[in-house]
């Protein structure tokens, strides 16, 4: 029997490289991070001295860590709310036929294609305390009479981070929502039009309920991307002013790499694991519901 005819061997051979990739680049660092979080390891020493839950008790008593934990939740939730609103609106626009639609779709995908570091540097200039194009535009239009120090005030800096995270992820969410809109049976939409439903009623009563599983998948992917992102916050604010805009990834980098305290940095990073496990479980459940829902719609 030929090797190509052995489905078990062929499947294992094709799955092997991907599995090895995950084990070497994800599994090994993950196990090492857990080991480091229970040790007093530093960047200047290769010894792992067991300290139990000392690193965890230390960071739980640290107000900077608690603020970073809160900021992670605020940025993640705030950006995803903004993403869903923008993605739903953009999907409705791209659903219609208009001149230059392909070019517009290309421009829409640019934030997703541009490297995070390059985009964050551009946004740093946009939010600059002196040359902010947002401030100058608001001043010219008469909507702003003072001056907004976007990256110099904790509240505004956090809001700026939410804007950049939403701008970075909403193209991906738009593609998902647009695909979901195209999968809605046309007879359902036509029936709602015949019943006299206008645009807004059709959107909220027909389309969004059918899109809910798809939107949930987009949100869950966005949550993972945002909660684990280091580049945007690090380049925009560096965690400042005065450590008020740190999120868990940037604080872990500051303590573990810049501060050379690998044990404490690993403990901060490991705090993301329970959150991401919950997100992964939700993704599997939503994917299952989406599959069942699609089967039900197809049957109808």
What does this structure look like?
By secondary structure, the protein is an all-alpha fold. The protein has a single domain (38-118, 154-299), classed as MetI-like fold (Orthogonal Bundle). Helix content is 75%, strand content 0%. It has 13 helices and no strands. Helix 1 crosses helix 12 (262-270), helix 4 packs across helix 7 (154-183) and helix 9 (199-227) runs antiparallel to helix 13. The protein is globular and about 70 Å long.
CATH topology: MetI-like fold
Principal-axis shape: globular
Count of discrete domains:
1
String of helices and strands: HHHHHHHHHHHHH
Regions with little confidence, pLDDT below 50 for 5+ residues: none
Which key features would you list for this structure?
300 residues; mainly alpha; MetI-like fold; single chain
